[in-house]
Amino acid sequence: AEWRRAYREITHFEGQLTEHGVVVTKLWLHLSHTDGLVAVAVATGREVGVDVEDGERRGRTVELADRFFAPSEIAALRGLPEGAQRDRFFRLWTLKESYIKARGQGLAIPLAGFAFDLDAGASAIGLSTDPGVDPDPSRWRFRTLRPTPRHQLAVALACGARAPLHTRVRWAPREV
Question: Which sequence spans correspond to the domains of the chain?
Answer without folding.
Answer: 2-158
